[in-house]
Amino acid sequence: MEGIFQSSFDGRFVMANPELAKMLGYDTADHMVKEISDISRQLYVDSKARNEMLERLEAGETVSNLRVELRKQDDSCIWAELTARVAKDENGEPCIEGLIKDISEQIKKEAAQEKEAEARAATRAKSEFLANMSHEIRTPMNAVIGLTHLALKTELSQKQADYLKKIMGSAQHLLNIINDILDFSKIEAGKLSMETIRFELEKVMDHLAGVLSFKAEEKELELLFRLDENIPQVLSGDPFRLEQILTNLINNAIKFTDKGSILLSVKRKAIDPDKGRICLEFKVKDTGIGLTREQMDRLFKSFSQADESITRKHGGTGLGLAICKQLVEMMGGRIRVESRTGEGSAFIFTAWMNLLKDRAKRIFSYPPDLEKMKVLVVDDNSIAREILSDILESFSFRVTLCPSGDESLAELVQAQNSNDPFKLVVMDWKMPGRDGIETAESIRNHPDIPTVPKILMLTAYGREDIRQKAGDAGVSYFLIKPVNPSLLFDAVLSIFSNEKDTMPAKTHEKTALPGMEDIRNARVLLVEDNEINQQVAQELLSSENFIVKTADNGRIAIDMLSGLAENKLPDIILMDLQMPEMDGLTAATLIRKKTGLWAKSQSLP
After folding, report:
1. CB of 351 within 8 A of CB of 376?
2. Structural Rg of the chain based on CA atoms
3. pLDDT at residue number 510
4. d(Cα 82, Cα 63) in Å, to the nearest integer?
5. Is 507 within the bounds of a domain?
6. What does the DSSP 8-state code read for residue 566?
7. What is the b/e burial string over 7-36, where b = at least 16 CB atoms within 10 angstroms of the residue's CB?
8. Torsions phi, psi of 20, nearest 5?
9. Both 565 and 480 in a single domain?
């Protein structure tokens, strides 16, 4: 819609068409012409725009596509594009003749596009800042942690070792806080993405157990896992982010629980065969201090803790649960909490995973002589008993449950008298009254139990002295809680095939990684500009008998490679990303293009 007008130089309309009147909110053109006696004051939001037009017209120019803001009859405003020239009215007097086009919608779109461009630029700047900060913060942290690790491998007094372990723990805690802040910033910038890779849920839970069992042990808490058997063994999703959520929730449970246990249970919530997806429900339940309704309402907000007293006592950034909420929602799920003060809490979340064609579950098949084997489970924790019973019954065993060492002796004697003795006792170590080791000794020496069953001992505490005492008491096998079906299955097979115990308790002894012997003496080129990190990495690699050469940046690395004979090329290159002169990405690209003197080599690292 275009409005046409004629006006005098002193600011009065001579004529206007109905379209212009409608555009400016008047009933008729005549009404508008009569009402507006001073165009500069009544029509223009900024009179300077009309003055600019007049100056250009008086200079003999034609004004084209001049953007002006105009005031309507109701005092609302529109943006318009004005084209004008000098003409003569019907009386032959000079006047201004022009067209006015409403461009308000176009201005809105342009403003939105500009705002979007500014937001993108801000996001890019934030992302670049985060990447730089991540590198700048983690570089010195890596040096602190790495050098402390190296120092702990040297000859130390007890006091020195204690100091260094506390430095290591504090550094790891600081790194966790830094990671929380960086993850939260990535989420806020929309830069955190999810992977979709094949993984085994049981292995995720195994890794959780390895990381968190020691923390639970320090507070004498029992960490238990329950995984429903109807969940496929292999799924597709982001195991790293799933583990991040579970680690945060279980860490919180350990932090706020002084006595009792923490249970992680996983069950199938829903399945969508059309889209090839499964929804899992994860629950982390503790026996801790619990929460009030007011505290629960604040839990998932950024930088928020349950209350100030908890902040002072337990610390933390208040970001962990906010990050968990965002990650859960990125997995298509929701998170909630159920709690009562003094009765513990349960954090429950759902997450969608992709199903794979290979959905086969592991089949637990025992030799015929072990089928329907009679097993006695002895544990004072009722949940632990139920978990063990479910697993053992899935192996086709006949399971009896006992809450104490004394009652287990009575069950064993009764079974012996009925000519249906137990072949296996699965027993907790730490129980009130008679503990697992004392019970094992009593079983071995009991006159009414001539057929002594094999004993598999479970404990949440991986202390070597307990393991030694258990062996002396006649225990056949020793497992650290939490256990999963695969671990328990392998343990039972080992016991009854007379294999040596291959499931050690968690100790601080150095264990060789699988396949290390095959790669020792490999040539490694380490490309790192930070001198301390270079030292840490070089000593760690050299301690495992790797042959290490170093370069301070990508340019030096390429020069080194160019001067090497084919049989002297490194087997692997470990390269930092951000370096002066030439960064890691540029150097890696050039190396992959096989530029330089090693271009004909078939053994490019």
Report:
1. no
2. 37
3. 42
4. 8
5. no
6. G
7. beeebebbbbeebbbbbbebeebeebbeeb
8. -70, -40
9. no
pLDDT value of residue 376: 96
pLDDT exceeds cutoff 90 at 91 = no
Residue range of the domain that includes 183: 108-188
Determine the pLDDT at residue 301: 74
Exposed, middle or buried by CB within 10 Å (0-12, 13-18, 19+), for 428? buried
Quick: pLDDT tens for 269-325. Answer: 999 989 999 999 999 999 999 988 888 888 877 655 554 555 445 555 567 888 899
Q: Which two tokens stand for residue 208?
A: 């959780």
Distance of CA 366 to the CA centre of its chain: 38
* CA distance linking residue 133 with residue 569, whole number of Å: 34
Q: What are the backbone dihedrals phi and psi of residue 11, each rounded to the nearest 5 degrees, phi first?
A: 105, 30
Q: Which residue has the higher pLDDT, 486 or 84?
A: 84
Looking at 135, 156, 188, which one is the last position of a domain? Answer: 188
What the block records as the tokens of 109 is 């779109």
With the C-alpha atoms ordered 517, 519, 523, 528, is the resulting torsion angle positive or negative?
negative
Closest of 278, 275, 269, 211 to residue 240, by C-alpha: 211
Q: What are the tens digits of pLDDT across the range 15-26? A: 999 999 999 999
Token representation of residue 403:
């809450």
Strand pairing category for 335-339 and 374-378: unpaired
State the residue for tokens 């064609």.
357
Interstrand relation of 77-88 and 63-71 (parallel, antiparallel or unpaired) = antiparallel
CA distance 563 to 565: 7
Query: Are residues 457 and 573 part of one domain?
Result: no
Cite the DSSP H helix spans in 418-530.
436-445, 464-472, 485-496, 516-519
Cα-to-chain-centroid distance, residue 472: 44
Last residue of a domain, one of 298, 320, 355: 355
Q: State the Cα–Cα distance between residues 321 and 326, nearest whole angstrom.
A: 9
Lowest mean pLDDT across 133-137, 217-221, 324-328, 443-447: 133-137
pLDDT bucket at 499, cuts 50 / 70 / 90: very low
CA 290 to chain centre: 25
**Number of Cβ within a 10 Å radius of residue 532:** 15
Domain match, 394 and 491 both? yes
For the chain, the straight-line distance linking the first and the last C-alpha, in angstroms and rounded, comes to 68
Tens digits of residue pLDDT in 172-190 = 878 877 877 777 777 776 7
Do 277 and 373 lie in a common domain? no
CA atoms within 13 A on the CB side of 368: 0
Can you give the pTM of this predicted structure?
0.65
For residue 566, which phi and psi values (nearest 5 degrees)? -60, -40
Per-range mean pLDDT, top range of 120-129, 315-324, 517-526: 517-526
Give the count of domains, the chain: 5
For residues 127 and 95, membership in a common domain is answered with: no
Structure tokens at 205: 């839970």
Helix axis angle, 554-562 to 584-592, nearest 10°: 20
Report in angstroms the alpha-carbon separations of 279 from 250, 272, 328, 337.
Answer: 21, 8, 12, 18
- Which candidate, 112, 105, 86, 87, places its Cα nearest to that of 23? 105
